[in-house]
Each structure stands twice: as C-alpha cells, then as structure tokens.
Amino acid sequence: MAFLSTHASELNGLVGASQDISPATNSDEALIARVAKGDRQALKLLYGRHHVKIFRFALRLMTDEAAAEDVVSDVFLAVWRRAGRFEGRAQVSTWLFGIARHKVLSRLRARTNDPLDDEVAESIEDPADSPEVTMQKEQHRMLLQDCLTQLSATHREIVDLVYYHGKKIEEAASILGVPLNTVKTRMFYARKRIGELIAAKGLTPAHI
User: Read out DSSP for the chain?
Assistant: First the structure.
C-alpha cells in the first residue's frame, strides 16, 4: 500500500533508506527503540508489519480508502516523531491502534456533515478471507457485515477491534481510552444488538 497522504513525501523519504537489522533487534519494541534513535529501516519494517491492519481499522470506521490511507501515513509519521515517548506500558500494536483511532476521530470531527454518532455507510470485505471459504461461512460473513452497518459507531468500533483485529478487552480499553467495564458493557450491548438483528431475519443469533 502506498503512502497516499499529505505527508507522503516526507514519510517516503523516511522509509527510503535501508540498513541491516539483526533478528535480535527485530521485535516491535526493539524496532520502536531504534526508530526513537532515528533508524529509518526500523520504521520501514514496523510499517510493513502493521500498516495493513491499521488501514483496515481506519477504513471500517471511515469507509473512504483515500482517507484511510491518509490515516496510515499520519500514524507512521507520528511514530517517527513520537517513538521516544513509547513507555512500553502496552503492546506496540495497541499503541499504534490508539494513534490511529485519534487520527480517525480527528478527521471525522473535521467533517461538518458527518457527525461522530452517525452510522458508517457500509463495512468492507476482509481481504484475509480465504477464496476457498464455504458458502455457509460466506453467507454468515455477509450477514454479520450487514448487521455491523446497523450498529452505532461506538459499538462497531468495539466489535472491529476485538473480532477483526483480535484485541483483548484490556487492549481495546487502552486503545479507546475508556475504563475496562465500559468496554465490557459496550461489547455486551453490541453482541445483544447483533443477535436481535439476526433474529429479526428469522435466523439463529450468531455466537459473537
């Protein structure tokens, strides 16, 4: 995925250089430490490892590919500038999603005709789905996607983090900046609402 944002030129310059990084310094935490010291190759490796998930996260919330790509660029430019502030209290991926969420919300707030509490227009097909997926699984996926479009932005955000990106409840709370019990409550009502929507179609509620 190309860096297609207002910061593209600056960020492309940062990831253009290359130097060897040994396996011993290849963990996310080690890469962040090296980025903090000005290591551009470390930033490039970190980008390669996480940019797709950040893009999907932003796209599900914004339903605008160009805007989602802008968010990805903004996130990794922020990493370059703020790596020295990473304190290791959470996983690097959790920190990245937190930055991404802040960037998404900032862009949504800037849309005077797109209030934060409005429904997002539609969800997208997950590129990770196997082409050999069974018809039953495909139908279930499409049904779930349709249900997700009918959730509030707050509830959809929780489902996206936990089920699409595999975040634990504790990690979701850290990313969203809300208490753990708030995340649990939102998840409860999101699952309840999805069950109601599926039942309304005359089907058995999904175990989500």
Answer: ----STTHHHHHHHHH------GGG-SHHHHHHHHHTT-HHHHHHHHHHHHHHHHHHHHHHH--HHHHHHHHHHHHHHHHHHGGG--SSS-HHHHHHHHHHHHHHHHHHT-TTS-TTSPPS-----TTS-TT--HHHHHHHHHHHHHHTTS-HHHHHHHIIIIIS---HHHHHHHHTS-HHHHHHHHHHHHHHHHHHHHHTTSPPP--
Show me where the domains of the chain are located.
1-116, 119-208
pLDDT tens digit string along 13-41? Answer: 565 544 454 545 589 999 999 999 999 99
pTM score: 0.57
* CATH architecture of the domain covering 119-208: Orthogonal Bundle (1.10)
pLDDT single digits (tens) 161-175? 887 777 888 888 888
Looking at the domain covering 1-116, what would its CATH class be?
A: mainly alpha
